[in-house]
Amino acid sequence: MSLFLYNTLSRKKEEFVPGVPGYAGIYSCGPTVYGDPHLGHARGPIIYDVLRRWLAHSGYRVRFVSNITDVGHLVDEVKGEGEDRIQKRAKLERLEPMEIAEKYTWAYFDDMKDLNVLRPDIAPRATGHILEQIELIQELIAKGHAYVSGGSVYFRVKSWPQYGKLSARNLEDQEAGARVEVREDKEDPRDFALWKTADPEHIMRWRSPWGEGFPGWHIECSAMSLKYLGESFDIHSGGIDLQFPHHEAEIAQAEAAGHKFARYWMHHNHVLLNGEKMAKSTGNFVVLRDLLKQNEPMVVRFYLLQSHYRSVLDFTGEGLEAAHNGYQRLLYAYRETRRLLASASEGRHSGLDTALDQLEAEFSQAVNDDLNTPQAIAAFFVFLPELNRAFAEKAGRASLERTARVFAELGEGVLGIFPPRVLEARLEGHLLDGLVKLLLDLREDARKERDFARSDQIRNRLGELGVTVEDTKDGPSWKVEV
Ligand SMILES: [Zn+2]
Q1: Which CATH number fits domain 19-268: 3.40.50.620, 1.10.10.350, 3.40.605.10, 2.110.10.10?
Q2: Alpha helices in 15-96 (DSSP H)
Q3: Which of 24, 208, 392, 461 is the residue whose CA sits 20 to 30 A from 312?
Q4: pTM, to two decimals
């Protein structure tokens, strides 16, 4: 069974065929690091993380590249005007622009870590790749697809008739999209900046063949994806907002310079908050860090994966609450499986084995169908009643072991919703049972030898750890005070 992905370029689901058998290269547009990540920033990294994990699970060697935009992103990117966002923030916080970039790069990585998103294999910074961007611009100028004007360099859109093929925009749409009077230095309102000359007060600036300036926003992704993934690489991904102009520009820059660019284009849809677009100006907005402080990050991840990535997701309190409950049921089932394994007798449970066959088949089918994570999660919920029945019927070890392995591979490994910290975070599981029982046995031995000082010490030390021991006529019992 192979993986099918919806390719924005062809507007249909296509079988994923890697450029090099056994290898998969993915480029995902990363954040512009000038502020705290918000809820909308979490969806893309989580879904492409599942893609990456699934490809690895399916036997591919994956290289996942996601950039950090730390330069050149103007407040009014459409007009190609306004202040550099990072510089604007630097003035506000009275920091160097590079301090702002570092601060918010790490804020982003910290949030992604809490959400159990694997770190990119390469997270190239735009500022670290100025030379590569300049070289690509030079190739475009040499081929007549770019021109120098007043120290800036623009892409000549009319020289590249394929411009618009990804976003399916015709010439009129593009002109409407540009919706500005022609800047004096541009030949055509649709032309976009590859390099911009720096005003005297612009701090982040580099020397170039065209004078001091800084790269346009789009050029970094063309240059860095080609550098690390090579010609005609496999998958390029990003938010639906980026289709135009960002990704359209990326394709034009790479292909007009004579390169073969990405073959599969994936776009994830918007996240709404309580039915409305998120916007700082209206207060309908959640900083990701705040959300992750108030909620178990895995519940947030689970919630986001319960919608298909190409549909709009409406994030609500009730939705989060429902996700919490569903997640707890899955987590309980996984933990209980592991706990019961310790005392299970030999043998199998045929009902459980059949249910596991079905779960594995449905899960693969769902994920292979354009990453249908809601369906993959639903397969687990179909499985739970059968698992509970098997618990009640004291299923044998071999079937429980297989259950634990399926939870580990698909839930923990592919969906990434059961990281070890969550599995071990609460004082449950057979390890704790075993350790407390060991200590209580030692305490019983001490009592039999009338070493009451030692038996009290064990009881008191357990008490300090929140484990209360009670002596009953059937022997000692214990519980954890939370
Ligand atoms: Zn990009």
Answers
A1: 3.40.50.620
A2: 40-57, 85-93
A3: 24
A4: 0.86
